[in-house]
Every structure is written in C-alpha cells, then in structure tokens.
Write a structure and sequence with these properties.
Elements lengths: L6 H23 L2 E7 L5 H12 L5 E7 L4 H7 L5 E5 L8 H8 L9 E5 L16 E7 L6 H4 L1 H5 L1 E7 L11 H11 L4 E4 L8 H10 L3
Parallel strand pairs: 1-4, 1-5, 2-3, 2-4, 5-6, 6-7
Helix pairs in contact: 1-4
Bound molecules: guanosine-5'-diphosphate and magnesium ion.
C-alpha cells in the first residue's frame, strides 16, 4: 500500500488555524499587527528603532523579534523603551504563528496600538507563513539589486507596502531606485511604496501617515 502524507499542507493548515487565533486576539485587544519581512540586513531593526522613537508620544507599541539566534535586535528595541520579546527560531528560517503566540504570552497587550513583528531575515520562507498580522511590510535596501522583486515575487505579492531603505546611499551606488520600484509594482501593483533613509529621515513622514491609516 502506498501512502502519501502531505506534510507541508498539514503544517500550513495548522499554522493558519493558529494565525486565526492570533488575529482574533489582536482584534479583541484593538491593536494593529504589522509583520516586517526582508532579506538579512535590509534595515528592519534600524527602521523599527526609528519608528518606535518617533511615534513614542503618539502610540503605544510592542515588538516581537525573530532571529535564529541572539537577542541583539531585542536589545536595540528595548533601548527605545518599547516592550519587546525575542524569539530564537534556531534552525527555522521564518517565524510561524505558534512561535508568535508563545511570544505574546510574555507581552502585556492591553492598551497597545501597534504590535510590530520583525521576522527572520529571509526573502522567501516568511512569505508563506501567516502570523495573524494585519499586513506584511517588505523592506528592501538599495544595496540589494533592483530585480529582487521579480526574482522573489511572492514576498512582494503578499505585502501591503514596500519600504525601499538606505536611499542615502544612492549617490554611491549604481542602483536604479525607479527600476526597483517598477519591478515591485510589476508583481504587485497595489503596493504602497516609500523610499526611506533611517540615516537622513527621508520618507518617514509619509510612512507614518500610511501606518496611521492602517489602524483598526
Ligand atoms: N546608510 C544606511 N544604513 C542603514 C540604514 N538602515 C539600516 N542601515 C544599516 O544596515 C545594517 C543592517 O541594519 P539592520 O537594521 O540590522 O537590518 P535587519 O537585519 O533588516 O534588521 C546596519 O549596519 C544599519 O546601520 C539606512 O537607512 N542607511
Ligand atoms: Mg534585525
């Protein structure tokens, strides 16, 4: 007798169930959860530190950090004063809904406006895992090559916004930012696009306006 077990399908079905429970929890608490995804080093933590600092007097925010190892990013976030929990995924290349659910038990969600989730740096696997967030935001930096959105389209397809970071480096690079944005819009014409630099602050006001409009 030949049996085929569809492990991936079962794993994802289970993940979807747990993500729905996270989503229901976020709705009960009245918070907006945003899942930040990118390749390693695109600038997610830097962007979060700046966002948390700039919005500290407007919103109450907490952070779930995902990395294979270390608490380095959680330490950077904690320095802003925001509550943070670090999840170490060890061999896993993405956060899943059960890991986030466990992380949430370490946070007080009452009164929060936003929960920011920084996923493991990886432009492929996190695209396939719903964590219960309201939306994914993909971060891509000017040092990565313009064609990443067409090479790794799923991440850009499942995201609501693209933050094109490190625009301060453009004078030193051959990177064509317009071409990169075209590639991203080619795979997802609905993407909200923000060109930002955490170093100069360029583009952050527009990002904050968009983030404010996503509440509820
Ligand atoms: N020039 C420049 N460097 C940046 C910017 N944002 C992040 N970086 C640098 O990029 C590197 C990786 O940033 P990090 O936030 O740790 O990326 P993550 O792995 O996506 O969380 C660090 O050395 C940051 O200082 C930016 O807007 N401009
Ligand atoms: Mg990081």
């Amino acid at each position: 007798m030949l049996q085929i077990i569809e492990v991936r399908k079962n794993v994802l079905a289970k993940n979807d169930e747990l993500a729905a429970a996270n989503r229901a929890l976020f709705a009960r608490e009245g918070l907006t959860a945003v899942n930040f995804v990118s390749s390693p080093g695109a600038g997610k933590t830097t962007l979060l530190v700046k966002t948390l600092t700039d919005l500290a007097d407007r919103y109450r925010c907490a952070v779930v950090e995902g990395d294979q190892r270390t608490a380095n990013d959680a330490e950077r976030i904690a320095a802003t004063g925001a509550p943070v929990v670090q999840i170490n995924t060890l061999s896993a290349c993405h956060l899943d809904a059960s890991m986030v659910a466990r992380g949430l038990t370490a946070l007080d969600l009452a009164g929060l406006d936003y929960l920011f989730i920084e996923n493991v740096g990886n432009l492929v696997c996190p695209a396939g895992y719903d964590l219960g967030e309201k939306m994914k935001v993909v971060v891509m930096s000017t040092t990565e090559g313009e064609d990443k959105p067409v090479k790794y389209p799923k991440m850009f397809r499942v995201s609501a916004a693209l933050l094109l970071t490190k625009t301060d480096l453009l004078p030193h690079l051959d990177f064509d930012a317009d071409k990169a944005v075209d590639c991203a819009l080619q795979v997802n014409p609905a993407l909200a696009v923000f060109r930002v630099s955490a170093k100069t602050g360029e583009g952050f006001d527009a990002w904050y306006d968009w983030l404010a409009a996503q509440r509820g």
